[in-house]
Specification:
D-Maltodextrin-Binding Protein, domain 2, 23% strand, 259 residues, 10 helices, five-stranded mixed sheet, alpha/beta, 38% helix
Length: 259
């Protein structure tokens, strides 16, 4: 009889991709997998409470380190794999001239303020990019210059960017890598010398230490060997999110060809 495992998934498209790659691998080694989808903080709360056995994916140390530390006050954790190396960014479409907008401070230039959309659409409140963006708004005085940042769904954020690109409007997108928009669009990252967007993280699978005995050494090695890249996740994310392909079929095909 197969063992059952509950996999907590941060409910954003690229996290669902990594979780699908993990779930297919778990099923291949004989586990029955239940996926539980939650926002960032809630996913870690579920891990802390023992409602999920594993979490995909934790971005450490910048984005999710504070959540992991809270879990480890109660539950020791094991880190497995290197799913990709994510980082947060603010970007603009590549048709916005670099000589006019190459760094965050350029957003304060009067000629840029007059041309660019000043409504900056973010994603949910618990995301690292949201915390970082709010600090950027304050530290760079962007609120005073007429810009506004607000949270919403990931689709609010991505469709705002795609709609602006169709009209060749100047727009700022608070984003990260990996994300499916990078697969189709050339998004130029704006330089941010203050370090407010955090560092390059490592995205890993977290396992409750007390569940480690469910796996043998070979199983743990297989899970630890799951290594992807930002570009791989962005491409698979695009196939699912914008081409409408079945997530598990897309990830199974990738695993078959590469693992």
């Amino acid at each position: 009889m197969s063992k059952s495992i509950n996999l907590g998934v941060t409910d954003l498209s690229f996290h669902r991709i990594a979780a699908s790659l993990v779930a297919n691998t778990l099923e291949e080694i004989g586990f029955t997998v239940k996926r539980t989808y939650s926002p960032h903080e809630e996913n870690f709360e579920r891990l802390k409470a023992g409602d999920v056995d594993m979490l995909a994916s934790a971005w450490l140390p910048s984005s999710h380190g504070i959540y992991k530390n809270e879990v480890e006050k109660v539950v020791p954790l094991v880190e497995l794999g290197l799913h990709y190396k994510p980082y947060a960014l603010w970007g603009v479409p590549d048709y916005v001239p670099e000589k006019e907008v190459s760094k965050i401070a350029d957003l304060l230039k009067p000629n840029v303020v007059s041309k660019i959309k000043k409504d900056i659409q973010g994603i949910n409140p618990g995301a690292g990019i949201t915390r970082f963006s709010i600090q950027m708004m304050n530290d760079y005085g962007l609120n005073d210059a007429g810009y506004s940042f607000h949270t919403g769904t990931e689709e609010d954020c991505f469709s705002a960017f795609e709609n602006a690109v169709k009209k060749k409007e100047w727009i700022i997108i608070p984003l990260w890598k990996p994300q499916f928009l990078h697969y189709k669009y050339n998004i130029r990252e704006l330089k941010e010398p203050k370090g407010l967007l955090g560092s390059v993280d490592k995205a890993v699978l977290l396992l409750s230490k007390d569940k480690e005995n469910m796996f043998n050494k070979k199983h743990l090695q297989k899970l630890d060997g799951l290594q992807f890249t930002n570009d791989i996740i962005a491409e698979l994310d695009y196939k699912v999110s914008r081409e409408g392909k079945n997530i598990d079929e897309v990830t199974k095909r990738w695993l078959k060809n590469h693992h």
